[in-house]
Specification:
This protein has two domains: 86 residues, Leucine Dehydrogenase, chain A, domain 1 (Rossmann fold), CATH 3.40.50; 125 residues, 3-Layer(aba) Sandwich (Rossmann fold). It has ten helices and eleven strands. The strands form three sheets. The protein has a six-stranded parallel β-sheet. Strand 2, helix 2 and strand 3 form a beta-alpha-beta unit.
């Protein structure tokens, strides 16, 4: 039976770090504030917003909700983003996406300076990922993966790592962060020939495809570490699940992060830490 790389101990350690820094800032008269910009009333967006509020409350940071009507025009929307970006009382910004049709998401992201881009979505933030210059913030999910790897002392140096997925905010940055730890990284995607064989030859697998229970026993071998980023709904049970077939992985691999209770738990803690770190950097 494999070891479960649970997210709660990792999140607790991050929250402790963020809480200590937040208390220090408050003693100096500085209150970390996260602005969450939400357009419309989508249940997924509201759930994410509520999660951000809870995560910030755990470390002493505040949240300012900027809720815009779903039929807002692009000019007014961009003006609202610009106002938040220029507000000195706001430490960092989280723009909930995807946006409704007619709103320019790329333009909005570029209005948020890297110093306030807490989920690492702008071009300036991506530059920090690929140049390792430490500017801006990493995408929260990508950083959460690495926090789990660090917390559980997973050795990446000289190891073969397979990343399933190539999105800008998960697969690609995770690949670069693994490369920074001296892993040899292969990125697999929907056009990859025999991804299962590539994964079976790898020491570390990170799954972030969004496809529920699509990574099964053919992908696994003994001694592997599997980080499952996927948060999906099992079409058969209606319950949350990951990309990996958990029970098949647990029979073979050395360690695997669970879903739920793994990367998602740590991602919220990373966001809260970013809020506090942004407040410290900006003052």
């Amino acid at each position: 039976m494999s070891v479960l790389l649970k997210g709660k101990p990792v999140a607790d350690a991050l929250n402790q770090k963020a809480s200590a820094l937040c208390e220090d800032l408050k003693q100096k008269g500085i209150t970390p504030v996260l602005a969450v910009i939400r357009v419309g009333e989508k249940p997924d967006d509201i759930a994410y917003e509520n999660g951000a509020v809870r995560a910030c409350a755990k470390v002493g940071a505040e949240v300012k909700k900027i809720t815009l009507p779903v039929d807002i025009d692009n000019a007014a929307f961009l003006a609202a983003v610009t106002e938040a970006a220029s507000d000195d009382e706001i430490s960092g910004i989280l723009l909930l996406r995807p946006l409704p049709k007619g709103l320019d998401e790329d333009a909005a992201l570029e209005l948020i300076p890297a110093a306030k881009d807490l989920d690492g979505c702008s071009k300036a933030s991506f530059a920090g990922v690929y140049t390792s210059n430490g500017e801006g913030f990493l995408p929260c999910t990508a950083q959460a993966v690495m926090e789990i790897i660090d917390f559980y002392d997973v050795n990446c140096s000289g190891k073969r790592a397979a990343v399933l997925g190539r999105s800008l905010v998960t697969g690609k940055p995770i690949s670069m962060l693994l490369l920074d730890k001296n892993a040899t990284v292969t990125i697999c995607h929907s056009r990859t020939t025999d991804a299962a064989a590539i994964c079976a030859e790898s020491d570390i697998i990170v799954t972030c495809t969004g496809n529920p229970r699509s990574v099964g026993k053919d992908y696994f071998r003994e001694g592997q570490t599997v980080i499952d980023v996927g948060i999906c709904v099992n079409p058969e049970t209606g319950k949350l699940c990951g990309n990996a077939v958990q029970e098949e992985a647990e029979e073979v691999v050395a360690a695997i992060s669970p879903v739920p209770g793994g990367v998602g738990t740590v991602t919220s803690a990373v966001l809260a830490l970013h809020v506090v770190q942004a407040a410290a950097r900006n003052h």
